[in-house]
## 1
Amino acid sequence: MTRIKVCGITRIADALQAVKYGADFLGFIFADSPRRVSVEQAARIIAEIPDSIGKVGVFLNHPYDFVKEIIKETGINYLQFHGSESPEYCQEFRLPVIKAFRVRDEKSLVGLGCYQTAVYLLDSFHPDRAGGTGKTFDWQLAAKAAEYGKIIIAGGLNEENVQKAIHLTRPFAVDVSSGIEKSPGIKDKLKMKRFIEKAKDR
Ligand SMILES: O=C(O)c1ccccc1NCC(=O)[C@H](O)[C@H](O)COP(=O)(O)O
């Protein structure tokens, strides 16, 4: 069954709803974003979440020591590197790594084979925004990435298109953020429920 990552969590209520509806991973953004959480905020939310749920810290070209500190202070147990972090940098950490690639065309996936990460997350390229764009990319390109390992499909997913994305790309997981929001960082309960139901129905 396709796993589900709900990203951009900023509130305990949203985290608990996502778990109740069946999310497998929750994402906490430490990069510059309207969905950014403080260390204290993330730690407070994570303390309320069952152990079985993956808690993913999302980073963007952060210094090694910053990431180490967040791991220590919050209890995140997955690392998502969303920038131009090198394979060597990703291997410095003991936690499982999700390396993100922002897909514009085939060339965006060059270098993917150099990483030895747990999973690859494919997100949409946007010239000004690193993530949470609400835009999809050409899902046909996901097949190339799948040759290298497990993939997570991200970027512009919502209750209308998630089944098609799963059907076309057969991912390990799907990732959603703005497609289930009322406003950045504030999730819409009903949209979240419907998204998860649709994703689980595939
Ligand atoms: O979501 C953000 O604001 C963000 C900002 C900077 C780096 C990464 C960010 N998000 C990472 C994610 O994993 C999002 O879930 C992913 O970009 C998909 O977002 P959306 O298109 O809104 O579903």
## 2
Amino acid sequence: MILELDCGNSFIKWRVIHAADAVIEGGGIVDSDQALLAEVAALASVRLTGCRIVSVRSEEETDALCSLIARAFTVQARVAQPAREMAGVRNGYDDYQRLGMDRWLAALGAFHLAKGACLVIDLGTAAKADFVAADGEHLGGYICPGMPLMRSQLRTHTRRIRYDDASAERALTSLSPGRSTVEAVERGCVLMLQGFARTQLDQARALWGDTFTVFLTGGDAPLVREAVPLARVVPDLVFVGLAMACPLD
Ligand SMILES: Nc1ncnc2c1ncn2[C@@H]1O[C@H](COP(=O)(O)OP(=O)(O)OP(=O)(O)O)[C@@H](O)[C@H]1O
Ligand SMILES: CC(C)(CO)[C@@H](O)C(=O)NCCC(=O)O
Ligand SMILES: [K+]
């Protein structure tokens, strides 16, 4: 079985798949390396034969995680590396090594699934959009603060915005104008996220008319789902690209 890891800025998404047929044996989201080891170890009957990782963390942090995995499961992790071109997609950055690996792999996965022009909207700690043309040219993209960053900036830089996570969740049962601080902030930030997604869609239409596929991924994808009804929601899009960039046998 193969352990797959997507190390974002706030969370690590993991899953274990069968090497032969990619059937998913288990998975989860954790907020630390130690929690990851505990959850993977707790998965009964797991004998890992390989591990592949995509990370947007520092090289030191990623190396440390690889060492932990090597010690705990005796497998050598393969870490996805930047490329100028892969699987028919050409990296659009002036310096291809600077493009976030999560964005690059999501773009590879999306182009593979769409087999044509596509827009990827990935809503995590940061909100990202990437454009890949029908000929595989990655045109570039956008990075904005995601929901967690918008929220924490408001909390950090104002004196009177204070609320707990439970009331934040309750506030999102509707998007009508807020009648309390928590409603005003939470709904306002969701509308920002939806506005981001709609603007990307407008750009894609201007470029490609109606012939493109929109993919929605990342932990906060559900918050904009209704704003982008055409989108294919693919929570594991980065893993699709990871398998392409790091084949194991
Ligand atoms: N089960 C979950 N665990 C943690 N976060 C979740 C979960 N479900 C939804 N979320 C939301 O997903 C968001 C984080 O998304 P994601 O995990 O894609 O971020 P990330 O990969 O750490 O960030 P980035 O991709 O920008 O580096 C948070 O705002 C959180 O509220
Ligand atoms: C934008 C983030 C932080 C999102 O996870 C990541 O893709 C990253 O660190 N990218 C490097 C900067 C860039 O993509 O231009
Ligand atoms: K991510």
